[in-house]
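Thought: the user wants the 3D structure for the chain below. I'll pass the sequence to the structure tool as-is, report back what it returns, then summarize two notable features.
Action: structure_tool
Action Input:
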Amino acid sequence: MFTGLVEEKGVLSRRDARGPGARLTVSFGAGGAGSIGSAADPLVLGESIAVDGVCLTVQEIVAGGFVADASAETLARTTLGDVPLQAPVNLERAMPLGGRMGGHIVTGHVDATGALIERSPVGETVKMVFGFPRELARFIAEKGSIAVSGVSLTVNGAGADRFDVVVIPHTLSVTSLGELRAGSRVNLEVDLLARYVARARDVDGGSDAEWRARLERAGYV
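Observation:
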């Protein structure tokens, strides 16, 4: 599990085909050692790490980075199959048991890719509007959470095929979101709670009022 609080901005330095999949080499920071994988808290073979919101397993540890395998399914359903080499990627190690939950629960299982439609300044912040496949609309709600390329964000407004967020200066500087331009593709993971509430409703039925009452009783609303 992850929280969507990016620890470091890395670089996708290599992508080598391995059958239908690929072996990805990710460098820390600008290719040098960064906060992830430091001597004080080194990476461990087999641990999970989110790369632009995609949960990958550390296959090999190399100087200044690590290597991970991506399946054909991962390459097809995320941006990792075509993100340019040397492009920045957001990195987050799995949350330790008892760690602070600063963002929201993120699994690293990408639901779909979306694209930045437009960005505009709002004071020191930036408003970003993203398009997404319509089948995800039932999981995206105003003031709910969503992970955009591994970054935990609060949905400011939501429509049938687009949503908008307001990104603060700190997030713009420490993640790849600050470098997005209109048309840039991103990985989207909807909120885990929204996914299971929708599934339960599909199975059990019930009106909107009944489900709101259930959520209120459980303390979610």
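Final Answer: Structure generated. The chain has four helices and 13 strands. Residues 8-93 form a domain with the Elongation Factor Tu (Ef-tu); domain 3 fold (CATH 2.40.30.20).
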